[in-house]
Specification:
The protein is α/β, with parallel strands linked by helices. It is built from 13 helices and 18 strands. The strands form 4 sheets. A 7-stranded mixed β-sheet has the order 5-4-13-14-15-12-16, with helices on both faces. A 6-stranded mixed β-sheet has the order 7-2-1-11-18-17, sandwiched between helices. β4 and β5 form a beta hairpin. The longest helix has 21 residues. The protein is globular.
Amino acid sequence: MDILISGASVAGPALALWLTRYGHRTTIVERAPALREGGYAVDFRGDAHLTVLRKMGILDAVEREQTHMGAMWNVNEAGKKLVAMPADLFAGDVEILRGDLARILYDATEPHTEYIFGDSITAVDQDADGVTVAFERSPARRFDLVVGADGLHSNVRSLTFGQDQLSYLGLYSAVFTIDNYLGLDHSGHAYNAPGKMAAIYSARGNAEAKAVFWFGSPPLDYDRHDVARQQELLEQAYEGVGWEVPELMRRMRRTDDFYFDSISQVRLDSWSRGRVVLLGDAACCASPLSGMGTGLAMVSAYVLAGELAAAGGDHRAAFARYEREVRAYAEGCQQSAVGVSRFMVPENRFMAWFMNQNYRLLPYLPWRGLMAKSVRKTAGAISLKDYGAYEVTRPAGPAPRPRPSGRAS
């Protein structure tokens, strides 16, 4: 079949890799003019995540690019280290910068997938035999299936399912790349003010750093494509906050990979409509608070492609089985994020002090192991079918590539 995928971040290319193995022709359309290199560090944990990476043939490449992050230190306004948050609490089995993962997936799929950058879907017209898709810039084309893998604010979901149904979790977040002016080396510093958190971490030695912000707010009204306005909102939220925040705001104006969004989840009664199906954050965003979004996307791509192969191209049966296999797993990942915001961004100084005391005592508390086990249990709460019998080709994984020290990712 000819299958169109909207979104070239993680879920879309992961699905394209599997669909190619099952003999389908794939096209990926992406609104951005080029591959997006920015974003958070993301992690994989447990057998389900690592099994999918291994089956894809990219586990070695992901491990070569992993961050090897050390502790994240909570600091006071003067920059004095107060307490260390151990890396094993948030880094998973393998942690990688989202941009590096996107590049690995692109390199693995580009020889077999048509990529269309700088374009977007404007209309989806289904009939019994296929889908006619209109684009902003390209001529209309005909496909057998359309997959929305275009994130929290999915264009495909909006066009096919109607008004977005997002569950806002009370926080906004921003992240961007800066030069590593604090000289951090696979470590980070985080500063809490009431209702706000700012952090800097470096996962590439002294070459560059990520600036990360989380803050509580009522829902904000802004254009998602207006970066200047988003930067203004971030400046307003952090006005008067000390530590390195004023310097980070100055450097923010010079970055080229600024990202800003609400922390929200997607909850839908169904992930498909006819010949259109949703994948990853577009279908069931768990939010960055869960730490599961990227692993969930990769597992979901594996299952969706596998069920299409197992159903012999019967999309109705395949979409139903895909949702049946993944929904409970996705809901568990979403549930893991509920309530995390109060720990990420303490509401007042007492809560910030209380959390610092807990972090300081954590290595000695009996439930530290229980916390790690709970996260791993959620990540592994799915039994993966083996779809290997349906593969018709096995593309090689991406070859090792040089890592320019100054590249933003």
